[in-house]
């Protein structure tokens, strides 16, 4: 459990392992860094349930847990998330009180160092993509920096973050359309994921380099790839394509989580 910013929130990580002392490779997932994206936390929790209830009963799940450690942060922005329940359903950022501004909040997914303060982020505290005063100025961002660094050399994949909406599977880079050296392998793996995801219910996804679709300087995926060496570092934008947007109906939670998990399993089994 990690303490969040001065708002006294807590960021909770769930770890699933059949033997932590084995120092197995790690798959890391975090969800709901943008407060209004409720389907992401629901998807993370559903996947946790599938793994924990399936271990020992389903050979595929049992094998995946025996091979890897699984780490999840279902709600990466808890103070912002609480605000969407209590005050503003469409709030995006955290709830930091910015000095010398009446506007509240920083986009913690623009608060990482690779390309910090570049295109796709804003220096305006009133913007939804406000990047903060410096890289890692936000305790949410520094918490995730420290979580991944603690497992340095073991982290096989990061899905950071799960987002909604748009139905996309995205790889580094977010700050530039230049492609990483390992892009062919990144593409191969995410194509496997998207094919399995789409084959579940026919949900169409686009996939590829983040910046081609969404410029996102200072995001997590670029930091994990560049500074932590995680080749399989991805962002997923879950359902839908705009009909309901951030307010996806509850009856779409299980289908969204199911297809996402099918895609992730296929990818992980192929890397």
Task: Explain this structure.
This protein is of the alpha/beta class. 35% of the residues lie in helices and 16% in strands. The chain has a seven-stranded mixed sheet with strand order 3-5-4-6-9-7-8, with helices on both faces. α1 crosses α8 and α5 packs across α8 (253-269). The longest helix has 19 residues, at 183-201. The two termini are 30 Å apart. Residues 1-7 have low confidence and may be disordered. It comes from Daphnia magna. Pfam families: Peptidase_M14.
Q: Please give the radius of gyration in angstroms.
A: 17 Å
Poorly predicted runs: 1-7
Helices and strands, in N-to-C order?
EEEEHHEHHEEHEHHEH
How would a crystallographer describe the biggest sheet? 7 strands, mixed
Helix content estimate:
25-40%
Secondary-structure content class: alpha/beta
**Beta-sheet strand percentage?**
15-25%
- Describe the strand arrangement of the main beta sheet, using strand numbers: 3-5-4-6-9-7-8
Shape: globular
What is the CA–CA distance across the termini? 30 Å
Q: What is the number of strand segments? A: 9
Family: Belongs to the peptidase M14 family.
Organism: Daphnia magna
Pfam families: Peptidase_M14
Active site: 237
Provide a brief overview of the structure.
The chain contains 8 helices and 9 strands. With 271 residues, the chain is α/β, with parallel strands linked by helices. It is globular, with a radius of gyration of 17 Å.
């Amino acid at each position: 459990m990690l303490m969040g910013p001065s708002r006294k929130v807590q960021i909770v990580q769930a770890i699933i392992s059949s033997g932590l002392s084995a120092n197995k490779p790690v798959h890391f997932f975090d969800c709901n860094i943008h407060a209004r994206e409720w389907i992401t936390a629901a998807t993370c929790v559903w996947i946790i349930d599938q793994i924990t209830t399936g271990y020992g009963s389903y050979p595929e799940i049992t094998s995946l847990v025996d091979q890897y450690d699984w780490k999840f942060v279902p709600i990466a922005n808890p103070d912002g998330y609480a605000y969407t329940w209590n005050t503003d359903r469409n709030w995006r950022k955290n709830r930091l009180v910015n000095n010398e501004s009446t506007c509240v909040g920083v986009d913690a997914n623009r608060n990482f160092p690779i390309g910090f303060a570049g295109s796709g982020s804003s220096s305006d505290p009133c913007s939804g993509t406000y990047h903060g005063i410096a890289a890692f100025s936000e305790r949410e961002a520094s918490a995730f920096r420290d979580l991944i660094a603690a497992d340095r050399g073991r982290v096989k994949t990061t899905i950071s973050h799960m987002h909604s909406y748009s139905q996309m599977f995205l790889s580094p880079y977010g700050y530039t359309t230049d492609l990483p050296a390992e892009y062919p392998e990144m593409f191969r793996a995410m194509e496997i994921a998207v094919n399995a995801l789409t084959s579940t219910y026919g949900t169409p996804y686009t996939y590829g380099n983040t910046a081609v679709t969404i410029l996102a300087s200072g995001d997590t995926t670029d930091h994990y790839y560049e500074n932590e060496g995680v080749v399989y570092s991805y962002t997923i934008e879950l359902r839908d394509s705009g009909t309901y947007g951030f307010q996806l109906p509850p009856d779409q939670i299980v289908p969204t989580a199911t297809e996402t998990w099918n895609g992730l399993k296929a990818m992980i089994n192929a890397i």
